Amino acid sequence: MKFDVVTIFPAMFERPLAEGVLGRAVSRGTLDVTVHDLRDFTTDRHRVVDDMPYGGGPGMVLKPDPIFRALDAIEAEHGSPAAVIMTSPQGTRFTQAEAQRLSRLPHIVLLCGRYEGVDERVRERVSEEVSIGDYVLSGGELPALVIIDAVSRHVPGVVGDERSVAEDSFSRGLLDFPQYTRPATLAVRRTGSANRDVVDAETLTVPEVLLSGNHAEIRRWRKMQAISRTLERRPDLLAGAALDEEERHILRVLQDGGHHGRD
Ligand code: ADE
Question: What is this structure's pTM?
Answer without folding.
Answer: 0.93
